[in-house]
Specification:
The chain is α+β, with helices and mostly antiparallel strands and about 375 residues long. Helices cover about 30% and strands about 25% of the residues.
Protein backbone atom coordinates (compact mmCIF):
# COMPACT_ATOMS: atom_id res chain seq x y z
CA UNK A 1 0.00 0.00 0.00
CA UNK A 2 1.40 3.37 -1.03
CA UNK A 3 -0.06 6.63 0.21
CA UNK A 4 0.77 10.11 -1.04
CA UNK A 5 0.24 12.97 1.39
CA UNK A 6 0.11 16.27 -0.49
CA UNK A 7 1.04 19.37 1.50
CA UNK A 8 3.56 19.51 4.37
CA UNK A 9 1.63 21.79 6.68
CA UNK A 10 0.62 20.74 10.21
CA UNK A 11 -2.14 18.44 8.93
CA UNK A 12 -0.06 16.81 6.19
CA UNK A 13 3.01 16.25 8.36
CA UNK A 14 1.05 14.65 11.19
CA UNK A 15 -0.98 12.57 8.72
CA UNK A 16 2.20 11.13 7.19
CA UNK A 17 3.71 10.38 10.61
CA UNK A 18 0.50 8.90 12.00
CA UNK A 19 -0.11 6.68 8.97
CA UNK A 20 3.39 5.21 9.29
CA UNK A 21 3.07 4.86 13.06
CA UNK A 22 -0.20 2.94 12.72
CA UNK A 23 0.74 1.07 9.51
CA UNK A 24 4.52 0.50 9.49
CA UNK A 25 4.41 -1.59 6.30
CA UNK A 26 2.73 1.14 4.24
CA UNK A 27 4.89 3.26 1.96
CA UNK A 28 4.16 6.92 2.75
CA UNK A 29 5.50 9.84 0.77
CA UNK A 30 4.98 13.48 1.77
CA UNK A 31 4.96 15.96 -1.12
CA UNK A 32 5.60 19.67 -0.54
CA UNK A 33 5.72 22.46 -3.14
CA UNK A 34 8.15 24.62 -1.12
CA UNK A 35 11.81 24.01 -0.44
CA UNK A 36 11.14 23.16 3.21
CA UNK A 37 8.27 21.68 5.18
CA UNK A 38 6.12 23.58 7.68
CA UNK A 39 5.90 27.06 6.14
CA UNK A 40 2.61 27.71 7.96
CA UNK A 41 4.08 26.44 11.21
CA UNK A 42 7.06 28.76 10.74
CA UNK A 43 4.92 31.93 10.93
CA UNK A 44 2.64 30.74 13.73
CA UNK A 45 2.60 32.95 16.80
CA UNK A 46 4.82 35.54 15.08
CA UNK A 47 7.51 32.91 14.69
CA UNK A 48 7.15 31.58 18.24
CA UNK A 49 4.88 28.70 17.11
CA UNK A 50 1.63 28.81 19.05
CA UNK A 51 0.69 25.19 18.33
CA UNK A 52 -2.07 24.30 20.81
CA UNK A 53 -4.29 25.65 23.57
CA UNK A 54 -5.31 24.23 26.94
CA UNK A 55 -8.86 25.45 26.22
CA UNK A 56 -9.14 23.57 22.92
CA UNK A 57 -12.67 22.20 22.59
CA UNK A 58 -15.25 21.78 19.84
CA UNK A 59 -16.98 25.07 20.66
CA UNK A 60 -13.96 27.04 19.43
CA UNK A 61 -14.68 25.93 15.85
CA UNK A 62 -17.12 26.56 13.04
CA UNK A 63 -18.13 22.87 12.80
CA UNK A 64 -18.14 21.61 16.39
CA UNK A 65 -19.67 18.20 15.68
CA UNK A 66 -16.84 17.27 13.31
CA UNK A 67 -14.21 18.50 15.76
CA UNK A 68 -15.55 16.74 18.85
CA UNK A 69 -13.98 13.35 18.06
CA UNK A 70 -10.61 14.96 17.30
CA UNK A 71 -10.31 16.66 20.69
CA UNK A 72 -10.06 13.21 22.29
CA UNK A 73 -6.66 12.69 20.64
CA UNK A 74 -4.89 15.43 22.61
CA UNK A 75 -2.91 13.03 24.83
CA UNK A 76 -1.72 11.06 21.79
CA UNK A 77 -0.45 14.27 20.17
CA UNK A 78 1.63 15.24 23.18
CA UNK A 79 2.86 11.68 23.58
CA UNK A 80 4.13 11.83 19.99
CA UNK A 81 5.87 15.16 20.57
CA UNK A 82 7.43 13.74 23.74
CA UNK A 83 9.02 10.97 21.64
CA UNK A 84 11.47 13.52 20.23
CA UNK A 85 11.79 15.49 23.45
CA UNK A 86 9.97 18.66 22.41
CA UNK A 87 9.95 20.96 25.44
CA UNK A 88 7.00 23.33 25.69
CA UNK A 89 4.98 25.52 28.04
CA UNK A 90 1.67 27.37 28.00
CA UNK A 91 0.94 30.94 29.03
CA UNK A 92 -1.90 32.45 31.07
CA UNK A 93 -4.18 32.37 28.01
CA UNK A 94 -3.55 28.65 27.55
CA UNK A 95 -1.41 29.09 24.43
CA UNK A 96 1.26 26.41 23.97
CA UNK A 97 4.73 27.33 22.66
CA UNK A 98 8.02 25.43 22.34
CA UNK A 99 10.27 26.27 25.29
CA UNK A 100 12.69 27.82 22.79
CA UNK A 101 9.88 30.16 21.64
CA UNK A 102 10.94 29.40 18.07
CA UNK A 103 8.98 27.68 15.31
CA UNK A 104 12.27 26.25 14.02
CA UNK A 105 12.33 23.97 17.09
CA UNK A 106 8.92 22.54 16.23
CA UNK A 107 9.89 22.01 12.59
CA UNK A 108 13.15 20.34 13.69
CA UNK A 109 11.21 17.94 15.94
CA UNK A 110 8.67 17.14 13.23
CA UNK A 111 11.51 16.38 10.82
CA UNK A 112 12.94 13.99 13.41
CA UNK A 113 9.59 12.21 13.64
CA UNK A 114 9.36 11.95 9.85
CA UNK A 115 12.84 10.42 9.82
CA UNK A 116 12.22 8.04 12.71
CA UNK A 117 9.04 6.67 11.12
CA UNK A 118 10.72 6.51 7.71
CA UNK A 119 8.37 8.82 5.85
CA UNK A 120 9.80 9.77 2.47
CA UNK A 121 9.70 13.55 1.96
CA UNK A 122 9.90 15.27 -1.41
CA UNK A 123 10.12 19.05 -1.42
CA UNK A 124 9.94 21.37 -4.45
CA UNK A 125 7.18 19.08 -5.74
CA UNK A 126 4.34 21.34 -6.87
CA UNK A 127 1.36 19.21 -7.80
CA UNK A 128 0.05 20.21 -11.22
CA UNK A 129 -2.32 17.35 -11.90
CA UNK A 130 -3.95 14.36 -10.22
CA UNK A 131 -5.52 11.64 -12.37
CA UNK A 132 -6.91 8.20 -11.57
CA UNK A 133 -5.93 5.23 -13.73
CA UNK A 134 -6.69 1.58 -12.97
CA UNK A 135 -7.53 2.37 -9.34
CA UNK A 136 -4.21 4.17 -8.92
CA UNK A 137 -3.62 7.90 -8.47
CA UNK A 138 -0.98 9.58 -10.63
CA UNK A 139 0.26 12.74 -8.94
CA UNK A 140 2.31 14.89 -11.34
CA UNK A 141 4.53 17.92 -11.04
CA UNK A 142 6.14 19.55 -14.07
CA UNK A 143 9.17 17.23 -13.82
CA UNK A 144 8.11 14.01 -12.11
CA UNK A 145 5.28 11.73 -11.06
CA UNK A 146 4.28 9.65 -8.05
CA UNK A 147 1.79 6.77 -8.06
CA UNK A 148 -0.34 5.92 -5.02
CA UNK A 149 -3.18 3.70 -3.84
CA UNK A 150 -4.63 6.40 -1.59
CA UNK A 151 -4.27 10.18 -1.28
CA UNK A 152 -4.31 12.52 1.69
CA UNK A 153 -4.77 16.15 0.68
CA UNK A 154 -3.63 18.92 3.00
CA UNK A 155 -2.86 21.86 0.71
CA UNK A 156 -4.25 24.41 3.17
CA UNK A 157 -6.27 27.49 2.34
CA UNK A 158 -5.29 30.65 0.49
CA UNK A 159 -4.17 32.89 3.35
CA UNK A 160 -0.60 34.24 3.55
CA UNK A 161 -0.33 34.66 -0.24
CA UNK A 162 -0.87 30.97 -0.88
CA UNK A 163 -1.20 29.81 -4.49
CA UNK A 164 -4.90 30.35 -5.23
CA UNK A 165 -4.66 29.09 -8.82
CA UNK A 166 -3.12 25.80 -7.71
CA UNK A 167 -5.66 25.52 -4.89
CA UNK A 168 -8.57 26.07 -7.29
CA UNK A 169 -7.22 23.52 -9.77
CA UNK A 170 -6.93 20.78 -7.17
CA UNK A 171 -10.35 21.53 -5.67
CA UNK A 172 -11.94 21.63 -9.15
CA UNK A 173 -10.50 18.21 -10.04
CA UNK A 174 -12.08 16.70 -6.92
CA UNK A 175 -15.54 17.65 -8.20
CA UNK A 176 -16.80 18.61 -4.73
CA UNK A 177 -18.95 21.48 -3.55
CA UNK A 178 -17.31 24.23 -1.50
CA UNK A 179 -18.43 27.03 0.74
CA UNK A 180 -17.31 30.59 0.07
CA UNK A 181 -13.69 31.36 1.01
CA UNK A 182 -13.31 34.32 3.36
CA UNK A 183 -10.22 35.67 5.16
CA UNK A 184 -10.38 34.98 8.90
CA UNK A 185 -8.23 35.85 11.93
CA UNK A 186 -7.47 39.12 10.22
CA UNK A 187 -7.63 42.86 10.97
CA UNK A 188 -10.95 44.58 10.38
CA UNK A 189 -11.28 47.68 8.21
CA UNK A 190 -13.46 50.27 9.96
CA UNK A 191 -14.79 53.79 9.68
CA UNK A 192 -12.02 56.37 9.79
CA UNK A 193 -10.45 57.78 12.94
CA UNK A 194 -7.53 60.03 13.81
CA UNK A 195 -4.34 58.87 12.08
CA UNK A 196 -2.51 59.80 15.28
CA UNK A 197 -3.90 56.56 16.75
CA UNK A 198 -2.04 54.41 14.23
CA UNK A 199 0.27 51.97 15.98
CA UNK A 200 -1.22 52.65 19.44
CA UNK A 201 -2.51 49.85 21.65
CA UNK A 202 -5.11 49.69 24.40
CA UNK A 203 -6.58 46.93 26.55
CA UNK A 204 -10.32 47.01 25.90
CA UNK A 205 -13.59 45.23 26.32
CA UNK A 206 -14.62 44.67 22.69
CA UNK A 207 -18.19 44.11 21.54
CA UNK A 208 -19.37 43.28 18.05
CA UNK A 209 -22.75 44.93 17.68
CA UNK A 210 -25.52 44.30 15.18
CA UNK A 211 -27.84 47.20 15.74
CA UNK A 212 -28.28 47.32 19.51
CA UNK A 213 -27.53 43.63 20.02
CA UNK A 214 -24.20 42.24 21.22
CA UNK A 215 -23.32 39.25 19.04
CA UNK A 216 -19.76 38.62 20.25
CA UNK A 217 -17.67 39.97 23.12
CA UNK A 218 -13.94 39.72 23.86
CA UNK A 219 -11.41 41.29 26.23
CA UNK A 220 -7.84 42.05 25.26
CA UNK A 221 -5.41 44.39 23.56
CA UNK A 222 -6.58 46.31 20.49
CA UNK A 223 -4.10 47.70 17.97
CA UNK A 224 -5.14 50.77 15.98
CA UNK A 225 -4.07 50.52 12.35
CA UNK A 226 -4.14 53.10 9.56
CA UNK A 227 -7.62 52.10 8.41
CA UNK A 228 -8.87 49.64 10.97
CA UNK A 229 -8.35 47.59 14.12
CA UNK A 230 -6.18 44.57 14.89
CA UNK A 231 -5.06 42.36 17.77
CA UNK A 232 -6.07 38.88 18.93
CA UNK A 233 -9.49 40.03 20.15
CA UNK A 234 -10.19 41.65 16.79
CA UNK A 235 -9.03 38.47 15.02
CA UNK A 236 -11.64 36.52 16.98
CA UNK A 237 -14.28 39.08 16.02
CA UNK A 238 -13.21 38.64 12.39
CA UNK A 239 -13.61 34.87 12.79
CA UNK A 240 -17.27 35.35 13.67
CA UNK A 241 -17.83 37.70 10.73
CA UNK A 242 -15.92 35.49 8.27
CA UNK A 243 -18.17 32.51 8.96
CA UNK A 244 -21.17 34.59 7.86
CA UNK A 245 -19.59 34.93 4.37
CA UNK A 246 -21.32 38.28 3.80
CA UNK A 247 -20.83 40.66 0.89
CA UNK A 248 -21.41 43.65 3.19
CA UNK A 249 -20.87 44.24 6.92
CA UNK A 250 -22.73 47.54 7.05
CA UNK A 251 -25.11 46.36 9.80
CA UNK A 252 -22.20 45.68 12.18
CA UNK A 253 -20.06 47.94 14.33
CA UNK A 254 -17.35 47.44 16.96
CA UNK A 255 -17.77 49.05 20.37
CA UNK A 256 -14.70 49.54 22.57
CA UNK A 257 -14.80 50.08 26.30
CA UNK A 258 -11.42 51.81 26.55
CA UNK A 259 -11.18 51.47 30.32
CA UNK A 260 -12.86 48.23 31.45
CA UNK A 261 -10.85 47.98 34.69
CA UNK A 262 -12.44 51.09 36.27
CA UNK A 263 -15.99 51.62 37.52
CA UNK A 264 -18.14 54.47 36.17
CA UNK A 265 -17.81 56.20 39.53
CA UNK A 266 -14.02 56.05 39.48
CA UNK A 267 -13.88 57.20 35.83
CA UNK A 268 -16.07 60.23 36.61
CA UNK A 269 -13.83 61.10 39.55
CA UNK A 270 -10.68 60.92 37.39
CA UNK A 271 -12.15 62.90 34.49
CA UNK A 272 -13.15 65.68 36.89
CA UNK A 273 -9.65 65.78 38.34
CA UNK A 274 -8.10 66.05 34.86
CA UNK A 275 -10.51 66.86 31.98
CA UNK A 276 -7.63 66.39 29.50
CA UNK A 277 -7.80 62.64 30.32
CA UNK A 278 -4.03 62.37 30.25
CA UNK A 279 -4.14 60.93 33.74
CA UNK A 280 -5.86 57.86 32.23
CA UNK A 281 -4.80 57.60 28.58
CA UNK A 282 -1.83 58.33 26.37
CA UNK A 283 -2.11 61.71 24.64
CA UNK A 284 -3.31 60.39 21.26
CA UNK A 285 -6.15 58.32 22.73
CA UNK A 286 -7.13 61.06 25.18
CA UNK A 287 -7.35 63.62 22.37
CA UNK A 288 -9.44 61.27 20.23
CA UNK A 289 -11.92 60.67 23.08
CA UNK A 290 -12.25 64.42 23.60
CA UNK A 291 -12.88 64.92 19.87
CA UNK A 292 -15.98 62.71 20.06
CA UNK A 293 -17.98 65.16 22.19
CA UNK A 294 -18.66 66.24 25.75
CA UNK A 295 -20.09 62.97 27.10
CA UNK A 296 -16.70 61.58 28.15
CA UNK A 297 -18.04 58.54 29.97
CA UNK A 298 -20.01 57.40 26.93
CA UNK A 299 -17.05 58.08 24.65
CA UNK A 300 -14.85 55.89 26.83
CA UNK A 301 -17.36 53.10 27.46
CA UNK A 302 -18.82 52.93 23.95
CA UNK A 303 -16.23 54.11 21.42
CA UNK A 304 -17.78 52.91 18.15
CA UNK A 305 -16.32 52.02 14.76
CA UNK A 306 -18.39 50.92 11.79
CA UNK A 307 -17.24 47.64 10.22
CA UNK A 308 -16.34 48.22 6.57
CA UNK A 309 -14.69 44.96 5.59
CA UNK A 310 -12.22 42.23 6.55
CA UNK A 311 -8.61 42.63 5.46
CA UNK A 312 -7.49 40.62 2.43
CA UNK A 313 -6.32 37.00 2.43
CA UNK A 314 -2.67 38.06 2.41
CA UNK A 315 -3.21 39.66 5.83
CA UNK A 316 -5.20 36.77 7.31
CA UNK A 317 -3.99 33.81 9.35
CA UNK A 318 -6.73 31.42 8.29
CA UNK A 319 -9.11 30.77 5.40
CA UNK A 320 -12.72 30.33 6.46
CA UNK A 321 -14.71 28.06 4.13
CA UNK A 322 -13.58 25.27 1.85
CA UNK A 323 -14.77 21.77 1.00
CA UNK A 324 -18.29 21.44 2.39
CA UNK A 325 -18.66 19.14 5.38
CA UNK A 326 -21.48 17.23 3.68
CA UNK A 327 -18.96 16.07 1.03
CA UNK A 328 -17.07 14.06 3.67
CA UNK A 329 -17.55 10.73 5.36
CA UNK A 330 -17.02 10.58 9.13
CA UNK A 331 -13.40 9.49 8.55
CA UNK A 332 -12.63 12.60 6.41
CA UNK A 333 -12.60 10.63 3.15
CA UNK A 334 -14.60 11.99 0.24
CA UNK A 335 -18.04 10.48 -0.30
CA UNK A 336 -17.30 10.53 -4.04
CA UNK A 337 -14.00 8.69 -3.59
CA UNK A 338 -13.31 6.83 -0.36
CA UNK A 339 -9.59 6.59 -1.11
CA UNK A 340 -9.06 10.35 -0.98
CA UNK A 341 -8.86 11.94 2.47
CA UNK A 342 -8.84 15.69 3.10
CA UNK A 343 -8.25 17.80 6.17
CA UNK A 344 -6.78 20.91 7.70
CA UNK A 345 -7.64 24.26 6.20
CA UNK A 346 -8.94 22.70 2.96
CA UNK A 347 -12.26 21.88 4.57
CA UNK A 348 -14.89 24.16 6.03
CA UNK A 349 -13.62 24.04 9.60
CA UNK A 350 -11.82 26.98 11.20
CA UNK A 351 -11.11 28.03 14.76
CA UNK A 352 -10.41 31.09 16.85
CA UNK A 353 -6.99 32.65 17.44
CA UNK A 354 -4.62 31.11 19.98
CA UNK A 355 -3.29 27.81 18.64
CA UNK A 356 -6.69 26.36 17.81
CA UNK A 357 -6.15 26.03 14.06
CA UNK A 358 -2.73 24.38 14.12
CA UNK A 359 -3.88 22.31 17.09
CA UNK A 360 -6.87 20.86 15.25
CA UNK A 361 -4.78 20.34 12.11
CA UNK A 362 -2.33 18.26 14.17
CA UNK A 363 -5.19 16.27 15.72
CA UNK A 364 -6.82 15.75 12.30
CA UNK A 365 -3.56 14.32 11.00
CA UNK A 366 -3.35 11.89 13.92
CA UNK A 367 -6.93 10.84 13.24
CA UNK A 368 -6.27 10.12 9.55
CA UNK A 369 -3.46 7.76 10.52
CA UNK A 370 -5.86 5.77 12.70
CA UNK A 371 -8.78 5.51 10.27
CA UNK A 372 -7.11 5.24 6.86
Amino acid sequence: MKICVIGAGPFGILSAISIKKNHPLYEVILLEKNENIGSRIKVSGNGRCNFFNTNLNENKYSSPLYVKKLVLLKDKLFSLLDEVGLSYYYDEEGRYYPLSESSSTMIYCLNKLLDSYQVKVKTNFKVEKIIKENNKYIVSSLLEKEEADKLVLGIGGISFNNDRINYNNIIHNLNVSTTKLTPSLTPIATSSFSLRLEGKRRYCNVKLMKGNNIVKEEKGEVLFKKNGLSGIVIFNISSYLARLHLSSYSSYCISLDLCPSLSDEKLKELTIKDPSLRNIFITEIADYILSLGKNLLQNIRNCRFEVKDLYEFKNSQVTSGGIAINELNDNFSLKKDNNIYVGGEMIDIDGECGGYNIGIAFLSGLYIGEVI
